[in-house]
Design goal:
single chain; about 140 residues; mainly alpha
């Protein structure tokens, strides 16, 4: 009996997670473009955490920047975000893709920093050590 109840509950949860609660908006932002938007928002928010004055000093308002860059408006972004959020499996897939992309970006930055550091160290090590003219 418990197994039957458990099975029915799990079945209902599974069906409920795939059910579309919100109708697809006419101006839905495509999934890949939403991932790009979330990626840029993540970078902007990271930048704000590191140097909060940088955006202000350069007169950059994050959401206005996103709307202009992707040629969207706030209503389109909100309706698309709500639509994807209403489909948990789709939203999870978007965020897993975003997470992978952010990790790849972080890895590239770490590798680039290491390359620059190694290059600077190599140049420093190749310079001849000046001889002390007093000892000669």
């Amino acid at each position: 009996m418990k197994r039957t109840v458990y099975f029915i509950v799990m079945l209902l949860l599974g069906v409920g997670c795939n059910e579309k609660v919100i109708e697809k908006p006419e101006n839905l932002i495509p999934k890949e473009k939403m991932i790009d938007i979330y990626f840029d928002l993540s970078l902007i928010n990271s930048g704000k955490a590191i140097d909060p004055k940088a955006l202000e000093d350069n007169n950059i308002e994050p959401m206005s920047f996103i709307y202009e860059k992707y040629a969207i408006d706030s209503a389109q972004f909100v309706s698309s975000d709500l639509y994807y959020a209403a489909i948990p499996l789709e939203y999870e897939a978007i965020y897993k893709t975003l997470e992978t992309r952010l990790e790849e970006h972080r890895t590239r930055i770490v590798e680039e920093r290491q390359r620059v550091s190694d290059s600077a160290r190599s140049k420093r090590d190749k310079r001849p050590v000046p001889t002390d003219s007093i000892r000669n």
